[in-house]
Amino acid sequence: MLFTLGALVLLAAAALVAWRPELVLGRQEPVVRSVYIFPPAAAQAGAAWRLTGQWRAPGKQDRDEPLWAVEFKPVPDWEAPAPVLIAQGERGVEVRGTYQPAPFTREPPLKVAGSVVLADAAVEWARLALVRSGAGEVRRLPGLVPESTEVEGAFFAEKVRRSIEVRAVGTEAGLTALMSRACAMAISSRPLTAAQESSEGLQSRMVGQDALAVLVAPDNPVRIVDMETLRGIFSGRIQRWSEVGGPDIPIVVVALEPNFGTHRLFQEMVLGDLPLTGAARKAPTPAAVDALVASTPGAIGYTSLPLSKQAALVALRTEPGQTPVVPSGASVRDGSYPLVRSLFVVWRKEAPPSELLQAIFSSEGKRILERFGFLLPPN
User: Fold this and answer.
1) Does the global pTM surpass 0.85?
2) 3-class DSSP assignment, residue 4
3) Neighbours of 50 (CB within 10 A)
4) Max Cα-Cα span within the chain
5) What is the pLDDT of residue 63?
6) What is the CA 37 to chain-centroid distance, rounded?
7) Ordered DSSP codes for 92-118
8) How far is the C-alpha of 379 from the C-alpha of 377, rounded, in Å?
9) What is the pLDDT of residues 238-247, one digit of tens each?
10) Do the beta carbons of residue 204 and residue 292 sit within 8 Å?
């Protein structure tokens, strides 16, 4: 009986230690024991809490306990509860915070369209612009149309959601959208024509430089080509690799659709007045060129240098006998690589997207462009 009674006492003591250890072991209970957030939908939207204390002066502290408050994180579409002040010296507090629905006003998005090559950088520029404008929370959402991404910022004080939509539709489609006022800014992988600047009232500014990289399948031994040979390959005059010192297999030309600025520039810089061979296989995007060339025996194509991941780079020389040059940051900077292009942002002169432009040309905006593998404009 005594053994049973002792065992019960020990069990009770163990339970008390587990429930209120500070009473038995002398440890101090935390200020906040638990915080409950209602309704569950607010918690799923990102509602959270934090414990904050009062500022204390430097030097020797008095014995008074600091004042604490539980603050609740603002989230879109919900009104956060007021902070809960905890009485001085109080511990083990249980706090309940109830969020109330507070729909935000959604403003029409500022639209950006154009170069697929610049689209990912443009999405990050959009995020930066919203943060610099005071957005408390920024999130990336799939756009309402194909090839589009929406970057949305929540402005809690105004209860407004502002967003920037980036559509990767190609340079030519982006410039067309800008001229028809379907977007506020175009991202372009080629310079404006004189007519676009004058008659259409467009203004542009260079953001960076890029190289048009010529790619071949990884098992192709032909890694050096002169510009005249390249012209013959893409026009269809040269149809087998054996004609240029390679294996006796057909040449498979991979190209882009005309709506891409990359294609238009390649046409001007390489083919000139010659048409592209009618046998060319068309890639849906500049990034797809790399994958298609890498997986197709005998293939050759062109794309932006930062997008070349799997296929092999070809060194180019302007004339036979000259030193071949591989596309790289160094050869773009010194001008030795023959296929270098500039990248631009374009807007209507009477309606510049000021906050977005400021973000693009800020020091952080320039770092974003470099992070995607492009070079900044020469000073």
Assistant:
1) no
2) helix
3) 11
4) 108
5) 59
6) 33
7) SEEEEEE-EE-PPEEPPPEEEEE-HHH
8) 6
9) 999 999 999 9
10) no
Q: Is 227 exposed, middle or buried (0-12, 13-18, 19+ CB in 10 A)?
A: middle
**Is residue 7 over pLDDT 80?**
no
Residue type, 231: R
Of 62-66, 92-96, 234-238, 277-281, the range with the lowest mean pLDDT is: 62-66
- Within 10 angstroms of residue 222's Cβ, the number of other Cβ atoms is 18
Q: Per the structure block, which two tokens stand in for 315?
A: 């060194």
Domains in the chain, please, with CATH?
A: 105-209+343-371 (3.40.190.10), 210-341 (3.40.190.10)
Query: In which band, very low, low, confident or very high, does the pLDDT at 59 lie, cut at 50, 70 and 90?
Result: low
3-state secondary structure of 55: coil
Token pair for 58:
């430097």
Do the Cβ atoms of 57 and 66 come closer than 8 Å? Answer: no
Angstrom distance (rounded) from CA 71 to CA 86:
11
CA distance 153 to 130: 6
pLDDT in tens, 149-174: 999 999 988 989 999 999 999 999 99
CA 251, CA 279: separation in Å to the nearest integer?
10
DSSP state of 350: T
Q: Which structure tokens are listed for 184?
A: 């506020």
Percent of the chain scored above 90 by pLDDT? 70
Residue 179 CB neighbour total at 10 angstroms: 17
User: Cα torsion at 168, 172, 174, 178 (round to 10°)?
Assistant: 180
Average model confidence (pLDDT) across the chain: 89
Q: Identify whether the C-beta of residue 50 lies closer than 8 Å to the C-beta of residue 71.
A: yes
Q: Find the helix packing angle between 116-132 and 363-371, rounded to 10°.
A: 150
Helix (H, G, I), strand (E, B) or coil at 5: helix
Task: Say whether pLDDT at 5 is over 90.
Answer: no
Alpha-carbon gap, residue 129 to 120, rounded angstroms: 14
- List the structure tokens of 124: 């990050």
Q: Measure Cα distances from 34 to 31, 85, 123 in Å.
A: 9, 14, 39
In the numeric block, the tokens 């809490």 are attached to: 49
Q: What does the alpha-carbon distance between residue 81 and residue 79 come to, in Å, rounded to a whole number?
A: 7
